[in-house]
Amino acid sequence: MNTAAAEAETMPLPKGPVLGWDNFWPPAGSGWPHIGQLPYRRYTTSGRAALHAALLQQRLPAGSGVLVPTYHCPTMIAPVIEAGLQPLFYALDAEGLPALERIDAATAAAAGAMFVAHFFGLARSLAAVQAWCRSRGIVLVEDCAHCYFGMAGERPVGHWGDYATASLSKFFPVSEGGLLASAVHEIAPLGLQAQGMRAQIKAAWDVLDLASRHSRLAGLSQLLRSLRAMRAKVPVPAGDGMTTSVSIDSATMHRECDMARIRLAPTSATRLIHGSLPARRIVTRRRANYALLSELLSSASGASPLVRCLPAGSVPYVLPLWVDGEARADAVYARLRDERLPIFRWDRLWPGTPAMAEDQGRTWSRSVLQVLCHQDLGAEDLRQVAGRINAVLASTPYGPSAATRSTDDRHP
User: How far is residue 164's CA from residue 38's CA, in Å, rounded to a whole number?
Assistant: First the structure.
């Protein structure tokens, strides 16, 4: 076995897209709508930076409220705090949409903006949410971090909100990158600080180095390995999925979200890769990967895909897998994480997130595992992942009061 093959064999499966020669084929566009087609756009370093920039566009008074879901990654809440605003949590209904009828009048009156996410990349119509916000003078920010491509009901993703935000690193092989976009509002300059030459080189290196470690750039791997040996190991920055469930205060969690980078402009590598890669492969492989994972996990012991059949207009970020019983889900997740599989869970809720009756968000934070299905995971990779998930589920017993859900094909 040669050095490149040996190295790739010991690497865990990639948790995000990886640049390879096949990324450039087929060369034609996907034909699918996407956030990059909105008429007004500004690049940022991340999805969290885009959320923060969206809030600054609105010039809300200090201390104003921002409605946010109880189901979230901390990097959704940190931009609210960074902007000097107050998160106001709302519950989710069984479809994963805001439970609007449960937001009381006082809370709505205190809100100047509302974040609504298309969870898992399974986009939904936000017609009712948009009407509710407009009737109350609330600016709707459509969080499309999980759904760069696709249709959200009657409209393309990003067209429901006053602003839309995206996370490029979830769909493209870039080390970081985000977009703030709008279908209706011009976006004022963000005043971001350009990154220096060292940061520009590092950003390009990170993309190439990751590709080399996964043997994705045949012909360049030897050169890249030689360059790697000549430089100190560069720490890998933390991703958006912060998954270690520990008790933590809001100040510490805010620091861990690395908000300092929101004021930096994205690197040239991010712009170049995002602007040059054709999209058809991304769309078709993600949809095919979701379908394969859903089939492989359809008979899992005490678990089921939250949505078995991928909606026609969706290009997924992950397959959400429901595991019966919260304590059992904790145990299953811990074992799968120990095996370094491309799976995570949003179990680190922002301190002060309330427990609300019949709130799907709090339930999902423990019972739903997010299984990655990005375009650079092959069919054999997914069979390996699904096989381990099925084995761990089969060997993990139920607790005395394991909650279950129906296994219909409803959208989350």
Answer: 9
Side by side, the strands of the sheet bearing 303-305 are: 303-305, 318-323, 368-372, 343-344
Written as one string, the DSSP assignment of 60-103 is PPTT-EEEEESS--HHHHHHHHHTT-EEEEE-B-TTSSB-GGGS
Listed in sequence order, the residues at least 6 apart from 80 whose beta carbon sits closer than 8 Å to its beta carbon are 51, 55, 66, 68, 86, 87, 115
* CA–CA dist 37, 281 (Å, integer): 18
Give the separation between CA 115 and CA 129, rounded to whole angstroms: 10
Amino acid at 268: S
Q: Which two tokens stand for residue 345?
A: 């869970």
| pLDDT for position 238 | 41
| pLDDT for the residue numbered 9 | 58
d(CA 61, CA 80): 12
Element of type H or E holding 111: strand 111-117
Q: Which residue type sits at 363?
A: T
Q: Would strands 155-156 and 139-143 be described as parallel, antiparallel, or unpaired?
A: unpaired
Q: How far apart are CA 46 and CA 239, in angstroms?
A: 10
CB 33 within 8 Å of CB 150: yes
Dist CA 409 CA 279 (whole Å): 28
For residue 351, say if its preceding peptide bond is cis, omega within 30 degrees of 0.
no
What is the residue type of 297?
A: L
The pair of three-digit structure tokens given for residue 117, joined into one six-digit string: 């996410």
What number of CA atoms fall less than 13 Å from residue 295's CA on the CB side?
A: 9
End-to-end CA distance of the chain: 45
Residue-wise pLDDT for 139-192, tens only, equals 999 999 999 999 999 999 999 999 999 999 999 999 999 999 999 999 999 999
pLDDT tens-digit map of 35-51: 999 999 999 999 999 99
> pLDDT tens, 96-108?
999 999 999 999 9
Burial class of residue 364 (count of CB atoms within 10 Å of its CB; 0-12, 13-18, 19+): buried
Question: What size, in residues, is the chain?
Answer: 412
The pTM of this model reads 0.91
* Contact call for residues 345 and 369 (beta carbons, < 8 A): yes
